[in-house]
Design brief:
single chain, 177 residues, alpha/beta, seven-stranded mixed β-sheet, 5 helices, 7 strands, globular, ATP/GTP-binding protein
């Protein structure tokens, strides 16, 4: 059996914990704690170290999902959690344009740190004020080859689709190498 490490990252309240909870075959190991800074205006609890979930994709393939904290003060965890990752999901809250700059900072960090296949998941697409993936591409200044996919992190089928698309990107990159 092959075990593959994937990292799920994004700005505060992008939906990282929900994404992992929706798909994990096991109870998610979470480090949610009461928010004590400006984050408390958005949500009551926040991830302070990581989330961990697991899903069996096939009899011979298991994905370990590691969710990063979204707050800048915990960004030292990004490098630690990204060690050995095969792929990256970058979640963006498509209803909050004020988080797009932070999302770009996160993309820049991971792209400059390690050459890793990634997809961008445009989360909260079930809400009426969500920016469409093509609008997000412009806002995030992403080239056409980067997959920006619609997502609803609370929907297992949607999360599964994101992970399958990431596996396709990984496969394409390995064939090109």
């Amino acid at each position: 059996m092959q075990t593959v490490k994937m990292v799920v990252t994004g700005a505060v309240n992008a939906g990282k914990t929900e994404f992992i909870r929706s798909i994990s075959d096991i109870e998610v190991v979470s480090t949610e704690r009461r928010a004590t800074d400006d984050t408390r205006m958005i949500k009551h609890e926040t991830t302070v170290a990581m989330d961990f979930g697991r899903i069996a994709i096939a009899d011979d393939l298991v994905l370990h999902l590691f969710g990063t904290p979204g707050q800048k003060r915990f960004d030292f965890m990004w490098e630690i959690l990204s060690e050995g990752m095969l792929g990256l999901v970058i979640l963006v809250d498509s209803t909050r344009p004020e988080t797009f700059r932070e999302t770009n900072r996160i993309i820049d960090f991971f792209v400059s740190f390690r050459e890793t296949p990634f997809v961008i998941a445009a989360n909260k697409q079930d809400r009426p004020n969500a920016w469409a993936p093509d609008e997000l591409r412009l806002a995030l200044r992403q080239p056409a080859h980067v997959k920006i996919l619609p997502c609803v992190a609370s929907d297992r089928a949607s999360v599964k689709n994101i992970l399958l698309e990431l596996l396709y990107v990984i496969q394409e990159n390995s064939e090109e190498a």
